């Protein structure tokens, strides 16, 4: 069944963590609106690509221009069935926008599905919605989410309405858990064998 999904993005959000969920959720039949405070439908955000090359932290390079599909000031969170909060650098400033905080709080108060990845949980922590959850995030965000009242778990975790992952390499498991929560039927098969049939 088609769901209406809201995604909150911003400049220098992680490219893969915006593009992959946005396109994957559409590919299985959901409608996804991507919004950003202070920007309108049709405007773009600049993404960043983060890579892990064995350094103490990730490397950041310029990604793509990602077009917004709706205007945040004009949407009503009550019209959406689920929320996606990607990571990257955007969450550190998106969490300072009251409309972002209120939107996130709506999804938790209504117990709607929420998927957050990497630095995305910084927004959830700022919204004060993590108390009592088991979850994960990018490891450098662990002190923030634990201070917000959650229990840390390594790897992808689903706790009630919340699905979290540590970074874009978690996409297969993270998206599968989120889509299962949305009511999609996820099956894992041998793609080579399937192609031979």
Automatic annotation (TrEMBL):
This is DJ-1/PfpI family protein. Residues 4-180 form the DJ-1/PfpI domain. SUPFAM superfamilies: Class I glutamine amidotransferase-like. Belongs to the peptidase C56 family. It comes from Halorubrum glutamatedens. PROSITE patterns: PEPTIDASE_C56_PFPI. InterPro entries: C56_PfpI-like (IPR006286), Class_I_gatase-like (IPR029062), DJ-1/PfpI (IPR002818).
């Amino acid at each position: 069944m088609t769901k209406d999904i809201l995604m909150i993005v911003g400049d220098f959000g992680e490219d893969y963590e915006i593009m992959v969920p946005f396109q994957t959720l559409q590919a299985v039949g959901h409608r996804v609106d991507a919004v950003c405070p202070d920007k309108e439908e049709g405007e773009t955000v600049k993404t960043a690509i983060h890579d892990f090359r064995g350094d103490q932290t990730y490397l950041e390079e310029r990604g793509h221009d990602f077009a917004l599909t709706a205007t945040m000031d004009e949407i009503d969170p009550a019209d959406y069935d689920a929320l996606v909060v990607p990571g990257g650098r955007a969450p550190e400033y998106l969490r300072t926008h009251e409309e972002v905080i209120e939107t996130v709080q709506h999804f938790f108060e209504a117990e709607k599905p929420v998927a957050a990845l990497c630095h995305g949980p910084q927004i959830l922590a700022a919204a004060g919605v993590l108390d009592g959850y088991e979850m994960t995030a990018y490891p450098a965000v662990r002190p923030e989410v634990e201070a917000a009242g959650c229990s840390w778990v390594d790897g992808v975790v689903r706790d009630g309405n919340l699905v979290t992952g540590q970074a874009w390499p978690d996409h297969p498991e993270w998206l599968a858990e989120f889509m299962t929560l949305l009511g999609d039927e996820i099956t894992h098969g041998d793609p080579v064998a399937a192609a031979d049939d």
